[in-house]
Specification:
The protein is of the alpha+beta class. It folds into 2 domains: about 160 residues, Major capsid protein gp5 fold, CATH 3.30.2400; about 120 residues. Helix content is about 30%, strand content about 25%. The protein is built from 9 helices and 14 strands. The strands form 3 sheets. Strands 1, 2, 5, 11, 12 and 13 form a 6-stranded mixed β-sheet that branches. Strands 6-14-10-7-9-8 form a 6-stranded mixed β-sheet. It has a two-stranded antiparallel sheet with strand order 3-4. It is globular and about 90 Å long.
């Protein structure tokens, strides 16, 4: 049995965090724009939301009593619910062994040295690729009610579902001109969003259409743009994060998305403008289980991992979108 891996592996708490949770919730570049809460205990937490204080400045009177404003800063709460997710994967033992050998050869390691952390690191790298793809679908396109059956989409509510409650005036219908749409988006922003540090996530289709229109419109710089491309897109000083996976997921899940999101499989020109930290992302860092074992009956390696995920928009005024 020299050409299979038949050793059971159990990831410690530290290794599970290093190989699986950190790539999802810490090393994931998108997460720098969200408020990640990693130590949630239980199924949900309440996020406090306070209205801004106002009318507390008064005319100076030497003899009058204390004249406080009777209206207090209102407190409301947003619920961040966690869903318990489970990853399950199996692979024929001989196939996994060959996959591991290719990973080891790529890193210059002796292919017969499968000991200790070398083996665990290689297996973790293979598995996290698939987990990340599913997580991207759940994170952005998750929709527990009405999502595509038997798909990752129905496992938890994602960001597009979380922002579905924003007023219709903050949703800009996509047109043939991305520049005009972006101008409309700036107008559609609330004062709270306009005053915040902002970031914009866009689909690849929207980004490419925006690049093309820039090259047609800005004649003086068009030659250099055509020769060298436009690498870092932005609008009105707001950086754009291009998400090519959006286009794939819109084509797959667009037909089941809420009306205030990309709600058709052809609505690939999508953009979401948000205040940094406007959306809270939750997980329970301490409660997860990752292990792999060899099943002799089927001659295959089996992998299982569980973790928690949930997200919530803190306030409807902190997001505006373009959808087609």
């Amino acid at each position: 049995m020299a050409n299979i891996i038949s050793t059971s592996l159990k990831w410690s708490q530290e290794d599970a965090a290093k190989y699986f949770l950190q790539p999802l919730f810490v090393s994931n570049n998108d997460m720098q724009y969200f408020d990640v809460i990693s130590n949630i205990s239980g199924e949900k937490i309440l996020l406090d939301k306070y209205a801004a204080l106002s009318n507390i400045t008064k005319t100076l009177h030497a003899s009058d009593c204390f004249a406080e404003e009777a209206t207090q800063a209102a407190n409301s709460q947003v619920t961040l619910e966690l869903d318990r997710l489970e990853v399950e994967h199996k692979q024929k033992a001989h196939s996994l062994y060959n996959h591991i050998k290719s990973q080891l050869l790529r890193t210059g390691v002796n292919r017969m040295d499968l000991s200790g952390t070398v083996l665990m690191e290689m297996i973790s790298e293979i598995l996290i690729g698939g987990i990340k793809r599913d997580f991207s679908t759940i994170f952005w396109w998750g929709m527990k009610t009405g999502g595509a059956a038997s798909s990752p989409q129905v496992l938890s509510d994602g960001v597009w579902t979380a922002v579905n409650g924003i007023p219709a005036g903050q949703v800009v219908p996509a047109t043939a001109s991305p520049i005009a749409d972006l101008a409309s988006l700036m107008t559609a922003r609330t004062n709270e969003l306009a005053a915040s540090e902002q970031v914009m996530f866009v689909s690849r289709a929207f980004a490419e259409a925006y690049r093309a229109e820039l090259q047609q419109t800005v004649v003086g710089a068009a030659y250099n743009d055509l020769q060298n491309g436009i690498e870092n897109l932005s609008y009105n000083g707001i950086p754009m994060i291009v998400k090519p996976d959006w286009d794939v997921n819109i084509a797959t899940y667009g037909g089941s998305m809420p009306s205030q999101g990309p709600s058709a499989d052809t609505a690939t020109k999508a953009a979401m403008l948000m205040a940094k930290g406007a959306i809270a992302v939750g997980t329970d860092w301490d409660i997860q289980d990752v292990d792999m074992w060899y099943n002799k009956d089927c001659k295959e390696n089996r992998f299982r991992m569980s973790y928690s995920f949930g997200c919530a928009l803190k306030d409807n005024s902190l997001v505006a979108t373009i959808v087609g």
